[in-house]
UniProtKB/TrEMBL annotation:
Domain Bifunctional inhibitor/plant lipid transfer protein/seed storage helical per the UniProt entry, residue ranges: 31-105
SUPFAM superfamilies for the chain: Bifunctional inhibitor/lipid-transfer protein/seed storage 2S albumin (SSF47699)
Leader peptide range in chain numbering: 1-29
Swiss-Prot/TrEMBL keywords: Signal
Pfam families: LTP_2
InterPro entries registered for this protein in UniProt: Bifun_inhib/LTP/seed_sf, Bifunc_inhib/LTP/seed_store
Native organism: Anisodus tanguticus
Entry protein name: Bifunctional inhibitor/plant lipid transfer protein/seed storage helical domain-containing protein
Amino acid sequence: MKFSSTVCIFFFIMALTIWNSGEIPIAEALTPAECKAERTILVNACKSVVTRRPPSPFCCQRLRLTHIQCVCSVITPKLAALVDVKYAIKVIQSCGRQVPRHFKCGSITTP
């Protein structure tokens, strides 16, 4: 599966926001297709983040609703190398969330 750095940033931002929201959506067992659909919705909702514009209200909503297990499982070392963690943290904070320290999501750990 090939991902762009943009998609990787979305996944990382989403995971951190979901984790810290206190309302982590938990599913007994999501299928790979269901996870892929959630990631697709998120990426489409948050396209403005790519151009370094603030996330829309819909983007922030999707960050809170998407299941964390659909995100962290795709953050490989190769994708993690493409993430600008400082930028991701700024986006998360702009959605009204704090960033957890030392949170591990796939191959990324926050400072």
